Amino acid sequence: MGLDVQSFFTRAAGWLAEAGGAFASLVFPAPCRVCGGVLLTANRVPICQECLASFVPIPHPICSGCGRAIVSERVGEAPEILCRLCRLGVYAFTRARSYGVYEDAMVRAVVLLKYEPIVPLARWFANRLAEVFRREAESLRADLLVPVPLHRDRQRERGYNQAELIARPLASALKIHYDDRVLVRTKPRPDRRRLSLHQRWAAVRGAYAIRPGSRVDNLRVLLVDDVMTTGATLDACARALRKSGAAAVTALTVARALRIGPVAPVSVPREQGPRLERDSAKSGVGAYSEPGKG
Length: 294
Known about the structure:
The structure is a single chain. With 294 residues, the protein is of the alpha/beta class. It has eleven helices and nine strands. A five-stranded parallel β-sheet has the order 1-8-7-2-3. The protein has a two-stranded antiparallel ribbon with strand order 4-6. A two-stranded antiparallel ribbon has the order 5-9. Helix 5 (119-135) packs across helix 8. The longest helix is centred in the first third of the chain and has 26 residues, at 2-27.
């Protein structure tokens, strides 16, 4: 009986908190942090429902490996579609998926989380990534979930890592073991805000390592980050994990930049590199200014 009474009062406290939040939103309406419109509902995520609903999912068909949208009339109904880089085996991760396209409202939402530790927004993104994971649970299954780390100087400056804010509730939702100390970034990002694609790959080459004492032998590792652009950061993290014995590495990111064409890293044979560079040049890809890791 005591437990029932306690449960009732716990639920009642929750109802009162929700009612209080709704009342506060009417008396002291807050602006949406994306569009500036008034938030009309009691929502701890500081973004209106219209903006949240405007996030664009990754258009299909996509590469079965890196998740990149494929724009080709020759794709047809092929059971497995691979982009050029995945056919060449450029990436050290086996599969990557993202929730939405990195454009418009999504850019502003991701940047907001990058510079303000808004936990409810991070949890909202984590729930969306959980949905993405469950759609492809068999190919993304993992024993360990690891956020992409910031360099210690950058984390000291910000006071937190946005990838960790997303990854922790995601690991809880998926019931996957979480460890944010497995990977460390050993090289800081260059100070310049605009980096060419070659510079982006060079900036993360060898920039990640396994923390001494951490063990990933024969584990399937799921990397989590906020944005995937060229895939260079995820590739560098995956290489560090595979070098230390990880059985496989997959990745989830909140957003994916579709207008950025990956450039060939040094691991691609020299005769293939120039061809990939020309392909990127033909697609209009150049220097890119983006606040994410890579």
